[in-house]
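User: Fold this, then the next.

Assistant: Folding the first:
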Amino acid sequence: MVSFEEHVAEGAAVPVDGWDFSWFDGRATEQRPSWEYARLMGERMARARRALDLQTGGGEVLAGIPQAPEVLVATEGWPPNAELARAHLAPLGGRVVEAGENDDLPFEDGTFDLVVSRHPVSVRWDEVARVLAAQGTYFSQQVGAGSLRELIDFMMGPQPVSPVRDPERARAAATAAGLTVLGLRSEALRMEFSDVAAVIVFLRKVIWTVPSFTIPAYYDRLKAMHAHITEHGPFVAHSQRFLIEARKLA
């Protein structure tokens, strides 16, 4: 049996750049939303002429589209991820611009007929509306309110659920920015962590889950997690996801 200390050492050593989650195979699972974001996004990309992917991470999801539009641009605020994205998107002729999630977008008004984003940290709805052309579409899968609260509460103690990521709040913000919401769907999805190394890598990679996470600071809680998994089997949490599509009519 692998010891707690061995799991910790492994979890600390795994690289966490980009959004490739293949390391988790056999270590953690996450139920996928029924709507298949990557497929739907790829269909919209194939119909677009000028498209923008906001907060692309390492560009892994965008790189999987079957057909690139004439102009393909992505933004990313973390330089190591931006470099990964440049490598992943080069075969598609994609360009990566470094911009933070709360920055003004460095593009002219009405530049894009499609703006997409998978799991944005935050959304500048005013900027999305500004860079969309008339009849342009925003299409995004986002993290919903209360996502992974079981894991968060285990690590940090009971935490209030912030309404910031509520789907209806996103609808209101999109509408306030002048967009017309065409569709809004949400689902709760089961996640399982089979060992504490997977928990460590996840918290190092998805840094907003437990923003203060470091191994030394949470060593005792990680030890408790290891004991929980050893006694009860995989740790179960639930992610919250919603899909929103909105259009700029004029």
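Now the next one, as you asked:
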Amino acid sequence: MTDTTRWTVSVSRNTDIAVRSYLAQRGMKKGDLSRFIEEAVKWRVLDQTVAEARSKFEDMDPAELDALIGEAAAAARQPVA
């Protein structure tokens, strides 16, 4: 992390103890908390983004969705001219 922003966050005492214990059990140090939080936030953002995308297609026929995905994958595989 070369370009960082400082956050001030508040968590419950139980969460603090659980996370610090988890990191300590794996031999991680105090500075690893920032990396752990950043990774957790990235995964949560990805999870929420996928859930939103899935919800937009939930009423689509599965066969139609498979065809749409196939078309998108084929287009992505085309060489750039």
